[in-house]
Amino acid sequence: MGAHIWYPALELEVNRPASLSANVMTDLLRDDLNYDGIAITDALDMDAIDTVYSPEDASIEAILAGNDMVLIGAHVGEAIQTRAMQAVVDAVLAGEISEARVDESVRRILLTKAQFGVLDAEPIDLPIQVPVDESAALINQMFQAGVTVAQDNAELLPIADDATVGMVFSGTRYGIRAVCEGYHDQFIWRAVSRVPTSGDISGMQGLAGQVDVIVVFTQNVDANLTQSDLVRALPPERTVVVALQSPFDLFAFPAISTYIMTYSPLEPAPDAACATLFGAIEPSTRSAVDLSAANTE
User: Average pLDDT of 263-277?
Assistant: First the structure.
């Protein structure tokens, strides 16, 4: 497995990770070290990749570098995985990736499967099988049941049908827009860096002047404090924060009017959050954690 780490002694292109470097994955691994086993990327939804490359471009670059298998993490969802696979197919058809490059990887993968008896494996007759559609519906129900409105001091929820809503989210989480657009008609969308820049933060004042309510999606503020700077640049009485992972993001901005927790960054979370924002579901107000210390700042 190639790491998403730049080795300047091996790769001259600044910040190109080893996982996407032909100098590392082919010249060093295959030619110098004579390795002929399977090479696989680390997850392509990690920061060193998804803040620089799209899933499609990263997948193509990984295969061109010499990887046999491309790992896309569970957090991005099936739709993005499908897009990445289609991009690879299109690159082969266009001649950007040669069929010979694909054949090399297929040979290694099939030889390894044969070595471990995978090609002769028989399906297991499970006594209980969960239909995919029903399990997906159950997962969505679980996420909706888990959403918590920890506070709504200015009574912003549910957001009024005629309100203009500014939606601020990390550009690496573009699925948020896709799932939330169906709940409301008047949005102004702002994609910001996962680590918000000074430009992202200064732009919040302009956005605040254009909308009635602002919704900001955060994720683990304690590990990325510039998210707090972005939230604090907004009028607290008109701002809703949706914490997609750590429920303790509130500690960084306790003055915020409305705070929603999903306890998870996985794909169903934004949909459950937006259903809460616009009144499609009745959320819980009972927090799974103690947030009382947030109000003592």
Answer: 93
